[in-house]
Amino acid sequence: TGIKIITNPTKTSYYVGDNINLDGLSVQATYNNGITASVEDYDVESSGAMSTAGRKTISVSYLYNDIIKTTSFNITVEKPQIEMSKASFTMKKGDTSTVTATTIPTSQNVSWKSSDTSVATVSGGKITAVGSGATTISASFIYNGISYASETTVTVSEDPVTLESIAVNTS
Fold it and tell me: Rounded CA gap, 83 and 62, in Å?
């Protein structure tokens, strides 16, 4: 007189906003006469579980003769992330530097942007210093309709002016 999970779903790790995948889930009912049988007409309650990160309990219920029996299994939901290889750095006008963005989940399509293109431009993580000042370089991606971003600050300086010679005019 109950139900139990025989096999958990194949997938138990997710990211915020994913849809739950029940492939591989096997549920067994035990009836009051001692007979056990696999059941497929169970209900799964996962509402809200996929909207925040953490360990989540997913309820499985089975209705038989107007009696509901319930069991559960656990999944893990992670928040997608993006991290840049440098938090901040300095460049000289005319120089180039490359930063990388690591995403979780991996292999996301990253968009790059400079907050002030008169200081530095960016394309695919390659930063070109074009004028003195400071700018924020951002890398972002969208996962399940939500944008995730990371930033680095780039300070660009002009080449310093150095004194090469002094001439004394005595006239």
Answer: 44
| Alpha-carbon gap, residue 152 to 91, rounded angstroms | 13
Neighbours of 154 (CB within 10 A): 24
**36 within 8 A of 42, measured Cβ to Cβ:** no
pLDDT digits (tens, 9 = 90+) for 148-159: 999 999 999 987
User: Which tens digit of pLDDT belongs to each residue from 69-116?
Assistant: 999 999 999 999 999 999 999 999 999 999 999 999 999 999 999 999
Look-up: residue for tokens 């004028």? 131
| Residue 137, C-beta contacts closer than 8 angstroms, at least 6 positions apart | 84, 99, 112, 113, 114, 115, 120, 122, 127, 151, 152, 153, 154
Q: Measured between alpha carbons, how far is 42 from 62 in angstroms, rounded to an integer?
A: 5
Token reading at 41: 């007409």
CA 112 to chain CA mean position, Å: 16
Q: Give the span between the Cα atoms of 122 and 138, in whole angstroms.
A: 9
The bridge status of strand 126-129 relative to strand 120-123 is antiparallel
